[in-house]
Design brief:
Strand content: 15-25%
Order of helices and strands: EEEHHEHHHEEHH
Number of helices: 7
Structural class: alpha+beta
CATH architecture: Orthogonal Bundle
Distance between the termini: 14 Å
Number of domains: 1
Largest sheet: 3 strands, antiparallel
CATH superfamily: Winged helix-like DNA-binding domain superfamily/Winged helix DNA-binding domain
Number of strands: 6
């Protein structure tokens, strides 16, 4: 993920390559496009991310019928599938796992990139644009082809 602060722009970054909102972090267009595509391809609704903006949300509150009751998904999503989608959103940079004194938890929060994407989603209203078949294929290919962390440089 590439980011710079507006107060100290890097010489190689131009304003045409970076996207920002009211926040101090600017992201490359490719990062924002990948995040937007990943967000549109998940089964999660705006309510989940609005809640994550205020507090962390446990996986149990997102998965299954509980996720539907909480307004986080349209239909029940298996816990393993929900966690897989949430981990992908972490890898894309939209979410992070909560950490407590014992280590990682099963709770998730939104990142600054996620905040920016949430602002865009709110401007459009609760209805996200439906991902095209090519969006779904590209997103699935990106998820599948991702190198494990131990293989990355």
């Amino acid at each position: 993920m590439t980011f710079t602060t507006p107060e100290r722009p890097t010489p190689e970054s131009s304003s045409s390559e970076l996207i920002s909102s009211n926040q101090s972090i600017q992201y490359a267009r490719s990062t924002v496009a990948r995040a937007d595509r990943a967000l549109r391809c998940t089964p999660f609704k705006l309510a989940l991310f609005m809640t994550m903006r205020q507090r962390s949300v446990e996986l149990k509150a997102i998965a299954g019928i509980t996720g539907v009751r909480n307004g986080y998904t349209e239909r029940p999503v298996a816990e393993l599938a929900a966690e897989s989608d949430l981990v992908w959103l972490i890898q894309v940079g939209l979410l992070r796992r909560e950490v407590d004194g014992q280590g990682l938890t099963d709770s998730f929060r939104i990142t600054p990139l996620g905040q920016q994407m949430l602002e865009r989603w709110q401007i459009r209203g609760d209805a996200r644009s439906t991902p095209s078949l090519s969006d779904r294929l590209y997103n699935a290919l990106s998820r599948w082809a991702r190198l494990p962390s131990w293989m990355q440089f």
